């Protein structure tokens, strides 16, 4: 709680992909370090948050976990544009979830910010015996579409941390190289009061009461 | 152009000739749809607009679709767009309150919303900077949201950029647009969780809090109120948004909302502005307080972490300030009490903080009336005539002689809460008192230690050192309660009796005693009357019953009796000792019976509670040496009152409107008071719950034979205490028997000396007597053992039940250990007895031998 104000950047993520691929589980594993065996169908959108450290900078990730169900698609589209990072998830044991990636990607390309970093995730890597999509196929799809790629397991937590951090690293690099207009909050990034880069956002600077509230 | 001019003239000139008007509208619509020139289309729209008020129905029927089409096609032209927007807005706003007009407007807005792309195009238009376009789009959307909220929400959700365009309205520097946009967002987010989340995602909290800051926090204008309203909408019952609010450190920004610009109209720094409460400032403050409440609603998954965050950033003292030390208007204070109540509910740290807080109260000290002076008449034991001073005589009056409007002494915050709740300050509204009562309730809720501490304050605090220049006598929550418990009589002199003078005190007192055997024992020990002055001490429970009897006999407002009865029910429930004390005055039972009897004309709710109380007095009447036993009460209920009538009494109270209307956090609406009106508070909600939970078993227990020994199946604390005390008395019995044996033995020794010089016959007689005595002793011991083993058997059964009840497992274990220890002790005693027995027969042989040898 006390460190809530001590961040260099806030970055917004969304998690998208078919229903049941493990989006909510990935988020839960990342924020709470636990696994939820039952499928709690996400209704609309849920929020989660966690700090990560990238290149010595404190970055607060605000993560919106969206519903994979078709009926919520129109709602989740409202979240694309404001996100700096997107985790596009499929289930390596269900081929159809891999096939639907094209649709998801079209959606993202249409509604998301052009600079949004997209990480393709093949989840449930612990279920090797039931695998229906090979690592190479996933990797090839990512390469063809200019995405990052990783296989994860929300159950064993393999690569979960890495997936979120890797995405943050890439976004941080984009910030450093000036690709992101960090002064436009609509792009899913906000500079924190700790940031020493000089120009801070008016809201952060005006009250300056960040540190006293801890 | 001529055509249009004439068309217009036709419409205007021949009003009432609908045929012509209708035809013209047909042609106008046709032109709008098909004219190739933009000018022609524009002119037709303008004409249509100019007559839209007079021909709503026709234009609505024929023109709605056409006008919407223009929005799609011609939105590059600002003039035509503006005209269309205005026309549609007029059509969608009902002309009057008449149903027809409402239906027409609804129909037209339905037609517009039918095609979601119409909404999409409107939202796209918000990209346009032109003031009028933006303004009219917002007006139209605001009109549509009123007539058809759900459908508009749906349409907006299908437009991926829609919400962020609406949110951009908040950044518009033109205030009208920003404010209208705010109102639109408020209506849109009232009920739709998806929209609430999207709005939050668009940084709503940041943006709104920034606007509030800019506008001067609570001292700002209505815009602050609107912003706070929107923040509240986004958070109410929305777990995800509450997480977001907390994770983005927005709770830490709440204290800043209490800040005010203390600048006066001339821009001068003026600290006294803090004490000036305009209506708007009051509204803003209430919104802040409501916002806090939304974050800590009972039984919500986010409440505990939010309570913690609020504690950490110091919101608790701010609330205490508003509620107790500020001069805020009463409606604001009431709000602050409720917010505090929920902030400390089931949270030990926060409860503790409140209990440690000391404040300088804002209220002027209560004015002293003559009626408050303690009477010198000693209270008589005939309780019906017990004078009102019986609560105080022989002890220090809790009311000191202080002058009004002087700086108040510091006192514990909770004392002031009680003072307000029980009505010590004549100016306090019922709504504030109800709110303070709720705070008191959550202060003691599931907090037995606090209940105990409060119970001990029933004994008055010592007077201050006479040398300290204090104007106020020290007070405690307990003394305030005792004083108020008889308060309903006080205004008799003025001819006004306010039943709430005692009612609130009974509620508070019930909360101190509820489910707390120790607090009940403390209260039982309270007596009035100075024995040194020759007064007969009267116990508190009798004094309360006396007040109840006076209230009923004096035909006071039923609330008075209901308050006392509810208190007695809570007090006696599961408390044999309290029942014994309560019934030790025979007239009390008589009084209850009269109240309930079928011929009684008493208020049905009062009868119901009297029946409930009588039932409790039967169900838990387990004290051994009680004056009135179960055997006395059962036939009275079964034959004199009748079980059916008894049950009907309780049913009637359960089905009464005030009983059903009770809500968890009692409220008194401003409309419910004032002008001498009394609010509709008859029952405290926790009492309602208590009765609902227990009346069935109480009712059933009447059928259980009075001789049946106390069932041990109960799992309550007092049941366990009861078992323990039975074990203890068993042990005492064994000890007594043990010492009896010892006595016998020593008696024996003495007699032996005599025996030496006695006759053989006497020795033989002695022996028979001894044998009989020993046998008797054996039998007693056997009986004791049988009881013990039966008890052990019962205990084992109960343990099986207890094991199922997780929460009580630990208690069961402790109890078992204790019992085993007792059994062990008992076994030891038996061995000891056997040894003594042996010794005894040895002695007898010895005596015999002596006799023989003689
Ligand atoms: N074995 C295994 N099971 C997983 C893994 N991740 C998720 N699951 C299971 O997959 C099911 C669905 O997981 P969720 O996270 O609820 O799915 P979702 O993507 O959020 O689904 P929607 O909310 O409907 O969009 C659950 O039963 C999880 O226990 C994983 O890495 N390994
Ligand atoms: Mg999910």
TrEMBL record, chain A:
* GO molecular function per UniProt: GTP binding; GTPase activity
Membrane topology is: Lipid-anchor
Provide an example Pfam family for this protein: Ras
| Key word Ubl conjugation present | no
GO cellular component annotations of the record = endomembrane system
Family named by the database record: Belongs to the small GTPase superfamily. Rab family.
Q: Where in the cell is it found?
A: Endomembrane system
* SUPFAM superfamilies (alphabetical): P-loop containing nucleoside triphosphate hydrolases (SSF52540)
Q: What is this protein called?
A: Ras- protein Rab-2A
Keyword Nuclease belongs to the record = no
UniProt keyword list: GTP-binding, Lipoprotein, Membrane, Nucleotide-binding, Prenylation
UniProtKB/TrEMBL annotation, chain B:
Output the InterPro entries linked to this UniProt entry.
Answer: ARM-like, ARM-type_fold, P115_Arm_rpt, Vesicle_P115, Vesicle_Uso1_P115_head
Residue span(s) of domain Vesicle tethering protein Uso1/P115-like head: 407-702
Kindly give the Pfam families that the UniProt entry links to this protein: Arm_vescicular (PF18770), Uso1_p115_head (PF04869)
Q: Where in the cell is it found?
A: Golgi apparatus
> Where are the coiled-coil regions?
720-747
Q: Does the keyword Coiled coil apply?
A: yes
Q: Where is the composition biased (Low complexity)?
A: 380-393
Q: What is its main location?
A: Golgi
Question: Where is the region Disordered?
Answer: 370-403, 458-477
Q: Which UniProt keywords apply?
A: Coiled coil, Golgi apparatus
Reading the lineage from the top rank, the first entry is Eukaryota
> Gene3D superfamilies per the record?
Leucine-rich Repeat Variant
Q: Does the keyword Coiled coil apply?
A: yes
Q: Which GO terms describe its biological process?
A: endoplasmic reticulum to Golgi vesicle-mediated transport; Golgi vesicle docking; intracellular protein transport; vesicle fusion with Golgi apparatus
Entry GO CC: endoplasmic reticulum; ER to Golgi transport vesicle membrane; Golgi membrane; Golgi stack
Q: Which residues form the signal peptide?
A: none
Protein name as annotated = Vesicle tethering protein Uso1/P115-like head domain-containing protein
């Amino acid at each position: 709680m006390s460190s809530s104000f001590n961040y260099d950047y806030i970055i917004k993520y969304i998690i998208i992909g078919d229903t049941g691929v493990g989006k909510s589980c990935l988020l839960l594993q990342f924020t709470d370090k636990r696994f939820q065996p039952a499928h709690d169908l996400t209704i609309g959108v849920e929020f989660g948050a966690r700090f990560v450290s990238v290149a010595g900078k404190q970055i607060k990730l605000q993560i919106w976990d969206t519903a994979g169900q078709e009926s919520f698609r129109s709602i989740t589209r409202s979240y694309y544009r404001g996100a700096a990072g997107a985790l596009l998830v499929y289930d390596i044991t269900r081929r159809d979830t891999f096939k639907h990636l094209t649709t998801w990607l079209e959606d993202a390309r249409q509604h998301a910010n052009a600079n949004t970093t997209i990480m393709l995730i093949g989840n449930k890597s612990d279920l090797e015996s039931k695998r229906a999509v090979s690592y190479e196929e996933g990797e090839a799809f990512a390469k063809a579409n200019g995405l990052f790629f990783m296989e994860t397991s929300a159950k064993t937590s393999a690569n979960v941390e890495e997936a979120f951090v890797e995405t943050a690293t890439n976004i941080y690099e984009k910030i450093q190289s000036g690709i992101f207009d960090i002064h436009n909050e609509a792009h899913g990034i906000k500079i924190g009061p700790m940031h020493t880069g000089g120009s801070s956002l008016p809201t952060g600077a005006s009250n300056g009461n960040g540190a006293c509230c801890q | 152009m001529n055509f249009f001019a004439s068309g217009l003239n036709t419409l205007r000139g021949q009003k009432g000739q609908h045929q012509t008007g209708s035809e013209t509208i047909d042609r106008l619509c046709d032109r709008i749809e098909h004219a190739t020139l933009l000018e022609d289309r524009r002119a037709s729209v303008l004409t249509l607009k100019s007559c839209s008020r007079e021909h709503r129905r026709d234009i609505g029927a024929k023109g709605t679709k056409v006008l919407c089409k223009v929005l799609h096609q011609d939105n590059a032209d600002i003039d035509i767009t503006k005209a269309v927007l205005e026309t549609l807005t007029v059509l969608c706003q009902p002309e009057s309150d008449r149903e027809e007009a409402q239906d027409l407007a609804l129909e037209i807005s339905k037609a517009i919303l039918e095609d979601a792309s119409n909404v999409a195009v409107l939202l796209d238009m918000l990209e346009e900077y032109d003031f009028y376009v933006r303004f009219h789009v917002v007006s139209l959307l605001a009109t549509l949201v009123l007539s058809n909220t759900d459908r508009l929400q749906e349409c907006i959700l299908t437009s991926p950029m829609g919400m962020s365009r609406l949110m951009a309205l908040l950044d518009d520097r033109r205030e009208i647009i920003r404010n209208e946009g705010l109102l639109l967002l408020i209506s849109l987010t009232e009920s739709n969780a998806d929209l609430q989340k999207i709005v939050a995602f668009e940084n709503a909290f940041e943006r709104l809090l920034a606007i509030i800051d800019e506008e001067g926090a609570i001292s700002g204008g209505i815009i602050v109120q609107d912003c706070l309203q929107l923040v509240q909408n986004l958070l109410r019952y929305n777990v995800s948004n509450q997480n977001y609010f907390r994770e983005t450190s927005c709770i830490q920004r709440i204290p800043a909302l209490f800040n005010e610009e203390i600048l006066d109209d001339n821009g001068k720094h003026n600290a006294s502005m803090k004490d000036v409460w305009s209506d708007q400032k009051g509204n803003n403050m209430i919104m802040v307080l409501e916002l806090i409440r939304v974050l800590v609603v009972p039984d919500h998954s986010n409440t505990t972490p939010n309570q913690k965050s609020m504690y950490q950033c110091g919101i608790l003292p701010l609330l205490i300030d508003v509620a107790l030390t500020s001069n805020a208007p009463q409606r604001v204070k009431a709000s602050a009490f409720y917010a505090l109540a929920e902030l400390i509910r089931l949270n030990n740290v926060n409860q503790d903080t409140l209990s440690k807080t000391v404040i300088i109260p804002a209220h002027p000290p209560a004015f002293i009336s003559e009626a408050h002076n303690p009477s010198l008449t000693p209270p008589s034991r005939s309780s019906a005539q017990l004078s009102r001073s019986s609560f105080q005589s022989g002890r220090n009056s809790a009311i000191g002689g202080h002058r009004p409007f002087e700086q108040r002494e510091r006192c514990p915050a909770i004392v002031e809460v009680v003072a307000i709740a029980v009505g010590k300050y004549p100016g306090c509204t019922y709504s504030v008192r109800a709110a303070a009562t709720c705070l008191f309730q959550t202060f003691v809720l599931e907090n037995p230690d606090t209940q105990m501490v409060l119970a001990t304050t029933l004994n008055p605090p010592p007077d201050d050192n006479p040398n300290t220049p204090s104007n106020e006598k020290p007070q405690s929550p307990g003394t305030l309660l005792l004083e108020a418990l008889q308060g309903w009589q006080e205004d008799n002199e003025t001819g006004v009796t306010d039943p709430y003078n005692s009612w609130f005190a009974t509620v508070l007192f019930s909360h101190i005693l509820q489910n707390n055997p120790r607090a009940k024992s403390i209260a039982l020990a309270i007596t009035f009357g100075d024995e040194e002055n020759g007064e007969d001490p009267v116990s508190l429970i009798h004094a309360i019953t006396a007040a109840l009897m006076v209230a009923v006999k004096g035909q006071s407002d039923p609330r008075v009796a209901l308050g006392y009865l509810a208190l007695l029910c809570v007090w006696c429930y599961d408390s044999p000792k309290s029942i014994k004390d309560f019934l030790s005055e025979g007239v009390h039972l008589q009084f209850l019976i009269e109240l309930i009897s079928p011929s009684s004309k008493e208020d049905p709710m009062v009868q119901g509670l009297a029946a409930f109380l009588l039932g409790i007095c039967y169900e838990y009447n387990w004290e051994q040496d009680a004056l009135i036993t179960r055997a006395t009460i059962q036939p009275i209920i079964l034959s004199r009152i009748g079980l059916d009538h008894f049950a009907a009494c309780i049913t009637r109270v359960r089905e009464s409107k005030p009983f059903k209307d009770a809500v968890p956090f009692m409220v008194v609406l401003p409309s419910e008071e004032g002008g001498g009106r009394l609010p509709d508070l008859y029952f405290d909600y926790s009492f309602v719950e208590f009765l609902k939970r227990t009346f069935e078993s109480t009712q059933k227990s009447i059928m259980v034979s009075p001789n049946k020994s106390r069932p041990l199946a109960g799992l309550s604390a007092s049941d366990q205490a009861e078992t323990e005390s039975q074990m203890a008395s068993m042990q005492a019995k064994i000890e007594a028997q043990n010492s009896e044996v010892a006595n016998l033995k020593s008696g024996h020794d003495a007699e032996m000396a005599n025996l030496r010089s006695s006759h053989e016959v006497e020795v033989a007689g002695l022996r028979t007597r001894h044998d009989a005595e020993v046998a008797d002793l054996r039998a007693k011991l056997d009986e004791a053992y049988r009881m013990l083993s039966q008890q052990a058997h019962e205990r084992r059964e109960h343990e099986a039940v207890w094991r199922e009840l997780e929460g009580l497992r630990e208690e069961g274990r402790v109890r078992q250990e204790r019992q085993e220890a007792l059994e062990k002790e008992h076994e030891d005693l038996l061995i000891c007895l056997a040894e003594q027995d042996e010794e005894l027969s040895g002695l007898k042989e010895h005596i015999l031998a002596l006799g023989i040898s003689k």
